[in-house]
Specification:
Layout (H helix, E strand, L loop, with lengths): L6 E8 L3 H11 L8 E3 L2 E8 L2 E8 L5 H9 L2 E8 L3 H10 L10 E2 L5 E5 L9 E4 L1
Parallel strand pairs: 1-4, 5-8
Antiparallel strand pairs: 1-5, 2-3, 3-4, 6-7, 7-8
Length: 132
C-alpha cells in the first residue's frame, strides 16, 4: 500500500530565535505570520507560502528536540511534514514496510492536528512528520 494524495504540509526550520528569523519571511517574501504556538518544547511561528507553510521552530528550553538539533547541526531544515488522508493507515504502512517510527501512535501537534514522526535512520537521514 502506498500513501495516495500525500502532499507537503509544511517545512520545519530550527532557529535560535523566531522573532529574528521572521524578518526574512515577512520583509522579503511578504508572508504573514500566524499567531505563535507552543508545542513539543518549541515556540512555532508559521508562515503561509502558497500551499506549503514554513514553520520556524525555536526551542523553549535546552532539553527539547529543537534545542538538541540546534546544538548538533545549527539552524536549518529540521523536518518535512506530509499531509496524508488517514494518519493511522499511513503509520501502519510505515510499520509494514519496516520504517522506524518515533511515534507509534499519533499525538497532538501544532494547530490541533494529530501528528507522528518517522525516524531519519530509516529515511536516508530526513526526519519526516505525518499529519492529517
Amino acid at each position: 500500500m502506498t500513501l495516495p494524495n500525500a502532499t507537503v504540509a509544511h517545512i520545519g526550520i530550527a532557529v535560535p530565535d523566531v522573532d529574528t528569523a521572521a524578518g526574512f519571511y515577512r520583509d522579503i517574501l511578504g508572508a504573514a505570520a500566524r499567531d505563535p504556538e507552543e508545542s513539543d518544547g518549541a515556540r512555532i511561528l508559521s508562515f503561509a507560502t502558497g500551499d506549503v507553510d514554513l514553520e520556524l521552530l525555536e526551542p523553549l528550553d535546552d532539553r527539547g528536540p529543537i534545542a538538541r538539533f540546534l546544538a548538533r547541526r545549527g539552524p536549518g531544515i529540521h523536518h518535512i511534514c506530509f499531509r496524508v488522508p488517514d494518519l493511522d493507515a499511513a503509520l501502519a504502512t510505515c510499520r509494514d514496510r519496516g520504517y522506524e517510527l518515533i511515534d507509534e501512535m499519533p499525538r497532538p501537534g501544532a494547530h490541533g492536528r494529530r501528528i507522528a514522526f518517522v525516524h531519519p535512520r530509516t529515511t536516508s537521514g530526513i526526519l519526516y512528520e505525518l499529519t492529517e
